[in-house]
Amino acid sequence: MQELMVVAGSREIHDDDVVFVGMRLPLLAFQLAKETHAPHAIGIFENGILRDEPADGILFTMGDNPNLEGATWATSMLDIMSLLQNGKVSLGFIGGAEVDRFGNLNTTYIGGKERTQVRLPGSGGGSDIASLSKRLVILMNHEKRRFLEKVSYITSPGYGNGGDWRKKNGLRDGGPSAVITTKGVLRFDGDTKEMMLDSIHPGITMEEILENTGWDLRMAPKIEKTKSPTRSELRIIRKYDVHGFWTRGDLSLQSTFD
Amino acid sequence: MDIRLIRCHSQYSFLRTLEQKVFSTKEAVSRFIEDGDSIAMGTALETAIPFAIGHEIIRQGKKDLTLVGPISDMFFDQLIGSGCVKKVIAAWVGNVIMGVGYNMRRAFETGVPRKIEVEDHTNFTISLAFYAGALGIPFVPTKSLLGTGMMSGENPFKQMECPFTRERLALVPAVKPDVAIVQAQRADEEGNTHFWGGSGVTKEAGLAARKVMVVVEEVVSKKVIRKDPNRTLIPGFLVDAVIPEPWGAHPSPVPGYYNRDHEQYIAYHHESRDRDGYLKWLHKWVLDVKDRKEYLNLVGEERMRSLSVKKHRKSIPVDYGF
């Protein structure tokens, strides 16, 4: 399923995108897109790396040496984040521990800040990417405890409580365009900004999705079946994730709860 | 008279070039890090993390420290578990490839080994906080943070309407740490520091800090610096200590020197799951080793060989001539 999510993520990358890549599945999605339909896409990494070719070596983190070799810019985080704030980044990827109906993410305090049950690692660059990139793709494990009507703490803003919340709070346009989960792909209504089911992954039923979503999920007018990875897409993913650390282990979406 | 004493009492920066600044890790930590200090560390994110310095801080039992950094890949978690940390100012504390940091969780949720305060930042706001410090101004505005949980609670951020455009801005106050630890490839004896790679917030932290300690794989002659001034990230006159400590960033990577030791991060994650496991780890890798040399004996030559740089990619020299 992780491999299918990587493929779905890569399809969100356009050939002219400047992508705030991140790690894990989004990194694989970027590498896949580069080798298939988006050969001109540029990847930027918050430690200060910009590159337009996938790294020639396996990456566990963006700070690994192979990510520097062959880069076209090595700079500071301030420069990378300035690009984001200055509207030069078209697409960002992030993950979260909890997401809600309007695409807000919590990766800091499970149970909220006052009554914290679990203290998670926090924002990292996630909140900046959610606030400042033009399009945003969220990758999530689709479980009821993670898909909540309303998150108890907003680490990375989606559409707040819907409608023009972003504007009212002084945020720029943008906000999440897709949520790719272990069960399907969800998108957002243009006016209300509420999450809607858009496609279901092969082998997953509608019941499973509804059971694992913590609110009465809206449906897009036409619900598709997510396209399965092709043989050549799988070959490319496995080239970059040779040992299956991200796509075939149980770690790929472990960010948090255990 | 010890020439270092001149520096301690002198505000004349030119005198700094006269002092002996090269110290061992042990001497430098003892001399320049005081209980209660705020310390910027891990400023290049997953790269070049000053583990050797952190472990020496633990061994010397420093107290009530405030750690400041963007993300911290396992490093802050180790320090928090040892009990030397009072407060963390960071965007992310955990273990990048594995997820949570168990010591961070224990300290925050149950006060073990002690309760810690946390000031939640984003990677951008940490950059801006150091940048404001480096600029010598009290705050920098941003379009990030708005509408997030970080704007509330004890966090220090505020909002204002822009006097020019009338748009809403979040304000990030300056952070000027007592000490910045700069982990880099090489420096000369005066502290002119060459760094290559993604530098994260290293430069901004170094320029904002009151004291700067530079930890390097190699101390080189000043000629090496002069031949490539564009590679200098921190100028020597700002530097208080130069610490030669080969493999001082292990298990994090240092470009041109060694690769990341992923297995150490995986093992630490499992070992630190409960408090007893963490204490065992702490004894084995920190308290029961005297210094970095003994630590590296534990890592083992074979492992170090496997992490060393295999595919060399040298840059092409540029012409600084006239």
Polypeptide structure, described:
The complex is a heterodimer of chains A (258) and B (322). Chain A has 258 residues and is an alpha/beta fold. Chain A has one domain (2-240): Glutaconate Coenzyme A-transferase (3-Layer(aba) Sandwich). Chain A is 24% helix and 23% strand. Chain A contains eight helices and 15 strands. In chain A, α1 (2-11) packs across α2 (24-35) and α2 packs across α8. The relative contact order of chain A is 0.17. Mean pLDDT of chain A is 93; it is low at 252-258. By secondary structure, chain B is an alpha/beta fold. Chain B has two domains: 25-138 and 176-306, Glutaconate Coenzyme A-transferase, CATH 3.40.1080; 139-173, no CATH class. Chain B is 32% helix and 22% strand. Chain B is built from twelve helices and 13 strands. In chain B, strands 1, 2, 3, 4, 5, 9, 10, 11, 12 and 13 form a ten-stranded mixed beta sheet that branches. Chain B has a three-stranded antiparallel beta sheet with strand order 6-8-7, covered by helices on one side. In chain B, a hairpin with a 6-residue loop joins β7 (158-161) and β8. In chain B, α4 (75-82) crosses α5 (102-110) and α6 (123-135) packs parallel to α7. The longest helix of chain B is centred in the middle third of the chain and has 13 residues, at 123-135. The radius of gyration of chain B is 20 Å and the shape is globular. The model of chain B is unreliable at 1-10 (pLDDT under 50). Classes of the chains: A alpha/beta (258), B alpha/beta (322). At the A-B interface, α3, α4, β9 and α5 of A face β2, β3, β4, α5 and α6 of B.
